[in-house]
Amino acid sequence: MTRHFLDIHRLSAEDLRAILDDAHARKAARKGRPMGWVDADAPARDRVLAMIFEKNSTRTRFSFDAAIRQLGGSGIIANAGDMQLGRGEPVEDTARVLSRMVDAVMIRANVHEDVEHFARVSTVPVINGLTDRSHPCQILADLLTIEEHRGPIAGKTIAWVGDGNNVCASFMHAAPKFGFHLNVACPAEYHPDLLDLQRGGTFVGLTADPREAVAGADVVVTDTWVSMGDGDYEARLEAFDGYTVDQALMDLAAPGAAFLHCLPAHRGEEVTDAVIDGPASLVWDEAENRIHAQKAVLAWCFAG
Q1: Given 112, 133, 138, 168, the catalytic residue
Q2: Would you state the pLDDT for residue 232?
Q3: 47, 105, 172, 182: which could join 73 in a potential S-S bond, CB 3.0 to 4.6 Å?
Q4: At residue 220, what are phi and psi to the nearest 5 degrees?
Q5: Would you call 138 a catalytic residue per the annotation?
Q6: In this predicted model, what pLDDT tens digit does every residue of 110-146 receive, in sequence order?
Q7: For the segment 2-40, what is each residue's pLDDT rounded down to a tens digit?
Q8: What region, left, alpha or beta, does residue 43 occupy, with left being phi > 0 and alpha being psi -120 to 50 degrees?
Q9: Has 262 been annotated as catalytic?
Q10: β-sheet with 204-207: strand ranges across
């Protein structure tokens, strides 16, 4: 059976834990090695990963390209606008063609349903590199980073401050799977999707007060208030007034609390320089860990 990695809520807690453990092991095993060194087991040897981008990308693009190379495979990168997708070819037809040309496909897409439609007919693994509804690879990298610096994620409290966006959704999906509590602070008009909130169950709490969400938290996470494609910049800046993660807000978290941001950051809006460049910030390790988390996802897909 083809293994797709589309959303965290679709996978069992056991599979997700195994992927995260493999990410830890793969990162530890290559300590001190050059970035082009291939992992000893090379689970992607002779395999080709297609990477399709409908959105601009830095971390997703470089990390997946590095990941497939470190697993012993190779990659082909394409912007959707340069493909027949950009001229209206159905995603299902593209999926059928690429299934005969590559061994897996990663898609960074505008619309979540397009990735689902692609995976429905694809005979090779499909990985969600980001959509408007979720960003599962980012959350695995975040959990890897937290566990590296603060120990096991189970039982910890994470505070999300800002927009109830795709990254927030994947955190809500992950909370019951990994056993952590998630405090979400969002303005009412930018609250998370109610179905995603339901998926989080008792592991997720929702408030409009950032101070309430952050109080006693082990990790504080935020993201840009205005994502690619959002056209209500001024309205968002007004709605998120008071949601900036500054040192005063961090001081309400538990002693030694960590700060995460998936980047790129709008410094001075959702986070201050003092926090993102300060001792609590793990954002650079978080960015690097996209490679290791995605290597584990790819290895899991290929093992199916």
Answers
A1: 138
A2: 86
A3: 47
A4: -115, 130
A5: yes
A6: 999 999 999 999 999 999 999 999 999 999 999 999 9
A7: 999 999 999 999 999 999 999 999 999 999 999 999 999
A8: alpha
A9: yes
A10: 204-207, 181-185, 157-161, 219-222, 258-261
- Contact yes or no for 226/238 (Cβ under 8 A): no
Q: Which of 4, 69, 108, 112 is catalytic?
A: 108
Q: Assign 187 a pLDDT band (cuts: 50, 70, 90).
A: very high
In DSSP terms, 46 is beta-bridged to none
User: Which has the closest alpha carbon to 294: 41, 72, 64?
Assistant: 64
Candidates 161, 207, 152, 157; CA nearest to 180 is: 157
Q: Which of 47, 262, 292, 294 does the annotation list as catalytic?
A: 262
Residue 255 burial by CB count (10 A; 0-12/13-18/19+): exposed, middle or buried?
Answer: exposed
Determine how many CB atoms are found less than 10 A away from the CB of residue 131: 24
Compute CA distances 151 → 39, 175, 200, 258, whole Å. Answer: 25, 16, 22, 12
| Catalytic option among 223, 236, 294, 301 | 223
Which candidate in 9, 112, 135, 261 is catalytic? 135
- Contact criterion met (CB below 8 Å) for 300 and 19: yes
Residue type present at position 282: L
